[in-house]
Amino acid sequence: MQAVPGVRECAIVSTCNRTELYASGDRASIPALIEWVHQWHQAEPGSFREYLFTLEHRLAVLHLLKVTSGMDSMVLGEPQVVGQVKQAWQSAQQYNTLGTILDRLFQHSFQTSKIVRTETGIGHNPVTLPFAALKLAHQIFGQVDKLSALMIGAGEMIEDCARHFVGQGLKSMTIANRSPKRAEALAAQFNASVIGLDQLEAELPRHDLVVACTASTVPLVRADMIGKALKQRRNRPMFVLDLSVPRNVEPAVKDFDDVYLYTVDDLREIAEHGYRQRTRALEEANRIVDGQAEAFDRWLNLHAAGETLKALRSRAFVERDKLLDQAQRELAAGRSPEDVLARFGHRLTNRLLHAPSMQLRKAAEITDEELMAAARKLLLDDLT
Q1: CA torsion sign, 319 to 322 to 325 to 330?
Q2: The pTM is what?
Q3: Could you tell me the pLDDT band of residue 18, with boundaries at 50, 70 and 90?
């Protein structure tokens, strides 16, 4: 992407539902970047256009701050996205495609994400069924790193639940499924063991968590099976989660004192409550992000001013050195030092004022009052 004309810095952010290009440069061209995307994918020109959106300047800054803070995610407030953005930043560092501006922007987005998550409740409440299941397990058992889970089924919901529990350090996991092939593929992801559905009754006593989600039309976990399991567990509690429709766990299981049975309806209610809580936090998060975008704008303006001053000083030193060299030659030729110094001062003043003088004359010719007022403020305020 750095080969695109005008692009000096670039980074690519990729998450589960987005691919975004961030670029900075003097003459960075959005059409040229879009063309590069098509060329990179060897696609027909314009074939991606309806799927693309472009943002520039402050809108682009706001967007990245919201993405990193989980405010623009499919699941509001999800924490994984900040890690994905950090990975993009680290990859860009590795390939030397970051410069001062984008590096500062990405680090600013990480600081903003931390402030948003610390000062608002945008990530505090569960808004997905697997996250709600994990929160319930924490409420019942505390930490899950000493627990064993039995996953009945091997579909997407079971996979999501497995990912959440393993991410919190689950001790061990067993996957029970009618199809061994699908169960084995899922078990390989999470270092789990595999059993058939005919082994459920024998395996139940070993597990503290039971999560069921299959297409079975009859209950796979009966009350008598749970009763036997509790006796072998010496009444240590079990968390049983039935995410199936129709139910995979007999409703009578809830009658046991040491069983915490929750259904998909229970989790959906928890998730909906969490979403409402996060939505209320979104207003405060937006205020924080707006303030952080303004802070980055101020830094960007200071950076631009610094670059301008650096260029101005460099030009002044070049002109000074040229005229000093000329003055030294004149001194060597025997000219009067007083005359040489006077000529040097006159020439240096003319050289330094030539460019701004020409621009002011042009501004006067086209009646550019704004530029003339800015020049008076910049050049003359400290003289009045």
Answers
A1: negative
A2: 0.61
A3: confident
Neighbours of 361 (CB within 10 A): 9
Please give the distance of CA 142 from its chain centroid, rounded to a whole number.
29
Q: Give the Å distances, CA to CA, from 132 to 127, 144, 215, 292, 313.
A: 7, 14, 21, 31, 60
What would the two tokens of residue 275 be?
Answer: 């979403």
Report DSSP letters for 258-275, one per residue.
TEEEEEHHHHHHHHHHHH
Q: Tell me whether strands 9-15 and 18-24 are parallel, antiparallel or unpaired.
A: antiparallel
CA 20/CA 248 separation, integer angstroms: 42
Task: Domains for the chain: give ranges and CATH numbers.
Answer: 9-119 (3.30.460.30), 129-272 (3.40.50.720), 304-383 (no CATH)
Which residues touch 354 (CB under 8 Å, ≥6 apart)?
A: none
Q: Which of 10, 16, 161, 213 is catalytic?
A: 16
Q: For residue 380, is pLDDT > 80?
A: no
User: Is 10 part of the annotated catalytic residue set?
Assistant: no
Q: Which residue has the tokens 């229970």?
A: 266
Tell me if residue 208 falls in helix, strand or coil: coil
Distance CA 230, CA 257 (A): 10
Q: Which helix (H) or strand (E) holds 10?
A: strand 9-15
Adjacency order of strands within the sheet including 209-212: 193-195, 172-176, 148-152, 209-212, 238-242, 259-263
Q: Compute the average pLDDT of residues 289-318.
A: 86
Which tens digits make up the pLDDT trace of 335-374? 888 888 888 888 888 888 787 778 778 877 888 777 777 7
